[in-house]
Specification:
The complex is a heterodimer. By secondary structure, chain A is of the alpha/beta class. Helix content of chain A is 34%, strand content 20%. The longest helix of chain A is centred in the middle third of the chain and has 17 residues. Chain B is an alpha+beta fold. In chain B, the strands form 5 sheets. A 5-stranded mixed β-sheet of chain B has the order 6-8-9-11-10. Classes of the chains: A alpha/beta, B alpha+beta. Chains A and B meet through helix 1 and helix 2 of A and helix 6 and strand 2 of B.
Chain lengths: 109, 712
């Protein structure tokens, strides 16, 4: 389990990357706990996407737990569900304007 | 959420916004003065638009909302729905000021954009009333919900520059802002460009975003969102007007990842599979095809999407100049100043040592220091024109308030002045301009009665003159009424009744503290705090001010300022044991004081009569006078004077250090400096000395000097 806290932004991206990559070393499934994350920017998003790709190539499962509403909202804005898979385009849920209800389309498929 | 990088980007935004606001004001004034010119109007619109777009990126909602209304009005003006009128410009100029205020407030309130003030709401209401008068005006953007049709769909492919994160630009913020322009139909984050984990730099941006946006804001508005990042990024916007080959270009630009992109385009409905693989027979992309039922696409979306290329070229040109924090420049100049002093010290040591090689190398070092010095000083030089053009607005506002018709003529705007001077000259100039408008230029009926054109003229002029810069504020008004000035001066006890004053002396009285001849106090000037404050400000810049008064024809106030504040070329002279510095710009020549001349207060220089000042006597320097004294002929504002000194010591670079507060009222001394040998030398203020002598000569000439001359 990797527990992240504070802002997952460019300020913390390098250390977050190191922490997650180190966690892959034992070859076990990895759970990244996002519940303490307060802000997410593109740099942070990249790290999460990198982790997902890494997990796929290593054949382990990467799960994200407890992203707060604000983070989920950001992920949704860029077309990514909370389990880091892309939202299938052109199907429901359609992305409403960025101010829409964040819980409305937290649909995992 | 405003971290340091964001703060840096915000600083850039504020600087650019300030520039844009200046352009906007110039454009508005131009619109008011001339025929509505499409290019000018477009310029104003673009300025408003860019500010709105950039403010949106920072989430400055107050600014976005306000600018949005302004932009809507400008847009309606562009489409001809609202005609340019004095009332309209009269609302837009304060709106621009309000916007400048909002942006200025960002520093104070930490960048939240603040709540809209009552003044701002009132302005917005006034702006909206113009829109209401033009019922067809389309209001685009965040505050109105408009139903977008398929014709307004665009596909955006955003590959931000690798450094965008480091420079505080977060692509997610851009995407969020796009969401306020319309509906984000689909957003796909493409992670395929991410390198292998150990090659990936956590602070470099690798992600690509493919977005389908449905908006009525128009292509220009969407493109404007990316103004800040376009130079480093690959931003492609495809509309229903884009051709199939644009789509193929987009897909091809992804190289090995083109298959994924093609799939995304197809999935998001932007293109058909066959089109992208190259075999599609139909011209036009799927966006265009989907647009058909909605009729022809609106005019704005037909703008060619390839315009981004031209923008990029324009932007590359701007990179030729860089912005530097003024404080850093000052630090450089200060250090160069110390370097000059240290160099002078080393030069002195080298001369005393008698080592010829050392002298040669120090000479070379000094030559280079001189080059560094002049280049460093040139860095601070800016054309005065930007300061001048600010007065277009002042003249407009003040003359409207006064009900006078005045045109401003600016000449010499390219004259370069030290940046610090440009900043400090603004206030005195404003005083002078207001004074000229209020007191100088007569009301139109009076002017016509005197046979002058009804429209008054105010002139701002600048030029270089023997090491100074001269700034003139001239009007073609009634001039200064000397009779009234004199009467007022007597009434205020500034002059004895019946004192014999020359015209020039009477004119100079207007610079006396607490002097104002205006019979009625207006809210512009005339409270008697004008001219003496101006004179003090100018004196603080080591400058001089005088007034040229042509009754019935006009007044010209002339401010003479040193080119730079930091370093002067000095001429060293010795008086007794002390060394003084005379600014070299003022030195005309040096002659020996003829023995026959030792008792007279004037000098015959090749037939020209010059007053003499014995510095040892004026400055009370003790010591025996040498057998032979020298005269340094100095010139200031056209009058020459001879300064009698003991010895001539030659030229030296001099860094001016201000005198302490205790000495600030000492007349004739303009500052101090440290000489190469560590001694302190005082700098002679030639302007004050010459003024002193001119005043003395003016009174004594009829009695002594001329008869004596005549007797020779």
């Amino acid at each position: 389990v990797v527990r992240l806290s504070g802002d997952l932004t460019i300020q913390t991206a390098a250390e977050t990357k190191a922490a997650i990559m180190a966690a892959f070393d034992d070859g076990a499934d990895l759970d990244v706990d996002l519940s303490e994350i307060t802000d997410l920017d593109t740099a942070g998003l990249q790290i999460l996407l990198l982790a997902r790709r890494e997990a796929l190539s290593l054949g382990v499962t990467l799960s994200l737990s407890g992203p707060p509403t604000a983070v989920r909202e950001i992920l949704r804005t860029v077309g990514i569900t909370a389990d880091l898979s892309p939202v299938p385009v052109g199907e429901e849920p359609r992305l409403e304007s960025a101010t829409g209800d964040p819980e409305a389309d937290d649909v995992r498929r | 959420m405003f971290d340091d990088d964001m703060r840096a980007a915000l600083g850039t935004f504020m600087v650019e916004a300030a520039d844009l606001l200046i352009q906007m004001e110039a454009g508005l004034l131009q619109l008011e003065s001339g025929q509505p010119d499409e290019e000018t109007l477009n310029g104003v619109f673009r300025a408003a638009h860019t500010i709105k777009g950039s403010a949106g990126l920072f989430g400055l909602d107050g600014i976005v909302t306000f600018t949005h209304v302004l932009e809507s009005v400008l847009d309606a003006m562009r489409s001809g729905e609202i005609a340019v009128s004095a009332a309209l410009i009269g609302t837009m100029l304060p709106s621009k000021d309000h916007l400048a205020g909002l942006i200025g407030d960002l520093v104070a309130d930490g960048g939240t954009g603040g709540q809209e003030s009552p003044a701002g709401l009132a302005l917005m209401a006034r702006l909206e009333s113009f829109l209401a008068a033009a019922p067809t005006a389309a209001v685009a953007g965040p505050v109105t919900e408009t139903v977008a049709t398929d014709a307004d769909r665009m596909h955006l492919s955003l590959r931000f520059g690798p450094d965008c994160l480091r420079s505080g630009m977060d692509p997610i913020a851009f995407i969020r802002y796009l969401g306020t322009l319309g509906e984000l139909v689909s957003v796909t984050t493409v992670p395929d460009l991410l390198p292998a984990a150990d090659e990936m730099d956590a602070e470099t941006c690798y992600l690509d975003f493919e977005i389908t946006l449905s908006t009525t804001a128009g292509l220009a508005a969407v493109e404007g969102v990316f103004d800040f990042v376009r130079a480093d990024s690959d931003i492609r916007i495809l509309t229903s007007a884009s051709t199939l080959s644009d789509y193929r270009d987009l897909v091809a630009s992804f190289g090995p990842h083109s298959a994924q992109i093609a799939e995304i385009l197809v999935r998001s409905g932007a293109a058909r599979a066959g089109d992208l693989t190259g075999d599609g027979p139909q011209p036009g992309a799927a966006l265009a095809a989907r647009a058909e039922p909605a009729g022809p696409p609106p005019a704005e979306t037909t703008a060619p999407a390839v315009r981004t290329g031209a923008d990029r070229v324009a932007r590359a040109g701007e990179v030729n100049s860089i912005r530097v924090d003024a404080a850093r420049l000052d630090l450089l100049i200060d250090t160069v100043g110390e370097l000059v002093i240290a160099g002078a010290g080393a030069g002195l040591g080298a001369r005393l040592s008698g080592d010829e090689d050392l002298r040669t190398s120090i000479g070379e070092v000094m030559r280079l220091i001189e080059g560094v010095r002049s280049n460093a000083l040139r860095l601070r030089m800016v054309p005065i024109g930007t300061t001048f053009s600010r007065f277009q607005r002042v003249v407009r506002d003040v003359s409207t308030d006064l009900g006078k018709d005045v045109s401003l003529v600016i000449t010499g705007g390219e004259t370069e002045v030290d940046k610090a001077l440009v900043e400090q000259i603004g206030d005195p100039l404003t005083h002078l301009v207001r004074n000229a408008l209020d007191h100088g230029i007569e009301p139109a009926d009076v002017r016509v009665a005197q046979g002058k054109p009804a429209r008054g003229t105010l002139r701002l002029n600048a030029f270089h003159d023997s090491g100074s810069i001269v700034v003139e504020v001239g009007d073609d008004g009634g001039g200064i009424d000397r009779g009234r000035v004199l009467a007022k001066a007597v009434e205020r006890g500034l002059v004895e009744p019946g004192a014999p004053l020359s015209d020039k002396e009477i004119d100079a009285l207007i610079f006396e503290p607490g002097f104002s001849t205006s019979t009625q106090v207006s809210n512009l000037s005339g409270r008697g705090v004008g001219m003496d404050v101006v004179k003090r400000n100018v004196a603080a810049m080591r400058g001089a001010i005088d007034v040229e008064n042509r009754p019935q024809e006009g007044t010209t106030v002339r401010i003479r300022l040193p080119l730079t504040l930091a370093i002067i070329n000095g001429f060293l002279v010795g008086i007794g044991a002390a060394t003084f510095v005379i600014p070299l710009d003022h030195v005309v020549e040096c002659v020996e004081l003829p023995v026959s001349n030792q008792r007279r207060d004037y000098l015959d220089l090749r037939g020209e009569v010059l007053p003499l000042i014995r510095l040892w006597s004026l400055l009370s320097v003790p010591g025996e006078r040498p057998r032979r004294e020298s005269v340094v002929i100095v010139e200031h504002a056209g009058s020459k004077t001879g300064l009698v000194v003991d010895t001539l010591k030659g030229e030296s670079q001099t860094v001016i250090k201000p005198l302490g507060r205790l000495f600030e009222h000492v007349e004739g001394i303009g500052g101090s400096t440290i000489l190469g040998n560590g001694e302190v030398a005082l700098i002679i203020d030639v302007a004050t000395l010459v003024a002193y002598v001119t005043a003395r000569a003016g009174r004594s000439r009829p009695a002594s000097a001329e008869p004596e001359l005549a007797s020779r």
